[in-house]
Amino acid sequence: MARPEVLDRIKEAETEADEIIAEAESDADERLAEARERAAEIRAEAEEEADAEAEERLEAAREEIEARREEILAAGQEDREALESAARDRTDDAIDYGVERFEEAVLRHTGE
Question: Which parts of this chain are annotated as the region Disordered (predicted)?
Answer without folding.
Answer: 17-37
